[in-house]
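## Example record

The block below lists the input lines for one assembly entry, exactly as stored, with component labels intact.
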Amino acid sequence: MTQDQQKSNGPDPVFETWMKAATDFWSASHTSWLDLMPTGELPDDFQQGLLGRFLEPWQSAAKMFQAVSSQFAETETVSALFEETGLVPEMAQKMAATWWKGILALQSQWIERVGGLAAQTKAFRMQELDREAFKVWTEFYERELRKFLNMPQLGLTRLYQERASRVVDRFNLFQGSLSEFLCMIYAPVEKSLKVVQQEMEKLSAEGEFSEDFKDYYRKWIKVLEGHYMTLFNSPEYVETMCETLSAFEDFSVARREFLEDVVKTLPVPSQKDMDEVYLELLNIKKELRALKKSAGAA
Amino acid sequence: MAEPKLRLDLITKKLAEEAEKVQTRAQKAPDVLTGPLDTDISTTPYEMVYQEDRVRLKHYKPVGESALKTPLMVVYALINRETMLDLQPDRSVIQTFIKNGLDVYMVDWGYPTPKDRFLTIEDHVCGYMDNIVDFIRRTRDVDQINLMGICMGGSFTVMYASLFPEKIKNLITTVTPTNFDTDQGLLHVWMRRVDADRLVDTFGNMPADLMNYAFLLLNPARLMIDKYVGFLENADNKAFVENFIRMEKWIFDSPDVPGETLRQFVKDCYQKNLLIKNQMKLGDRLVDLKKITMPLLNFYGKFDHLVPPAACELLTKAVGSTDTEDICLDTGHIGIYVSSKCQRAFAPKIISWLGERDAPKSAPRKSATRTRKRPTRADRSPPKKAPQKQGRQKAPSEVR
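Predicted structure tokens for the full assembly:
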């Protein structure tokens, strides 16, 4: 396959076509707006009334919009604008391209995983747990998207903006970890169902299929319990559990810091303020009790 | 004609029978669930005789004459509630105790709030517990009391008994973790990896909901699926439903755990295993298990997945007492208190064991020694007779 053919088979041509179509749509649609704009003047007596006074500013705004739009009706103006500024801002295009590539990468991972699920499964084997699917999202997020949230903020409210960005960032990371954790928790259910299914097939082939479905339920619960014990003792689970807990802690801290900024605007003490009070109170109580005890002993 | 491998006729027949049973159950279950249900827990009457901050002391008076001179103080864990010992009338350890003449005081740790987050293990053991012990000794005119601990409460009683051995006559520990260097239980495996500092710095008190979720995850197959399937299968059985609801009420009635207490418990016990090594410190005080010289009765469950036998069985060898006994029951963590089989083994054993040791020290005592050790100096010297104070027993309410 030549480079041109590879390029034509990849996502870029589709993306470029989509972008071009979108731009053509928006550039063409503005000309039709002109038809919708009011062109006539309102009658004098109506204008002089209260309603007229209310409508007057709207009419001025409409006239201004009409004047600007009529400029856009000139094809030379539009062409010059798009040529100078580019079809879309470069940064937005780059972001959109990054998203597109990331989504395709995730899709191919998921397709592989679904294909893998159809394969024969062995009981009590947790080694085949596929953590890579979630690692792809986490790596993609950390590599491509996180940098936008970590951009330094400017201006008087920069600290608050940074904390807000940090909440969003930590939330995304927590969601990634949590999804991985929940998927890991669900894996034994999947595997145990498959094991029982295979058992049922084997028994029916041998003619020993039990009529009582409760036997299969009990068997499933027992297999599921065993799978969970194997999973919970595995280092992978402990690691994922600790990572999820850590991500939750990070998110909780970031959320608390953000909320403390909000609470500052209200006459309400923050958690930090109350903790300081609690500690002081506790120390005072302890001193008082010690004094009471020594006074009592004396 | 050969016998078909899959007997569809039998399967469908069985399915039809099951469907009929389900239908009958589904018709009766709403009547049971919406009808009057006796699901109250902790119904044995008691008197609240002491309170200090959130901590309260319940006094259960014996039915009839008091069989023992020495009152018993029960210390439950900070996780879940002490109401488990009085879950239902026919499975109540407290009722068994008081019906057999035991005078029982039970610590109610209450529900920690954010202001309790800085309370340490030392505050609980050397603060609240010591104050309560002194209160009981003062109001009952006794020098010593019997002390019983459950789970983490048992760890606290072990620490207390080593720091204040002169105040404890007999010590009973049940499902009490003292050795944390084991991989037998999942909690031990997980706690070793948890960053306790970060956990406590983030949350303050350990949220009860998070702990409940963690406990459910110990065995999700049984605790989140099979348990409720069992409930649905018996939803038309009023007695079953009542017992089930009582257990549900208790198991999800979890207080938060004070942050600093949890921090030290995870770091010093689960991660460094200092308690059994006699290296644990509460403030400036060193917890030395060799100072536990009073008789010790140690219960644990063979199938306990929370506090496995390996976490409990080293205690009797680590203490300084010569009168020690281990009892391993064929049950799990909670089964010791609520299973009908263990009701016959657990509480009666405690009553008889305490009864044998309640006589004055000068009186001859039946030997119940299960472990042989070199006698200590206390055993060689002549026994002191406890001074007998005359006067009415006073039990005023005391609030600090």
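The mean pLDDT of chain A is 76. The radius of gyration of chain A is 33 Å.
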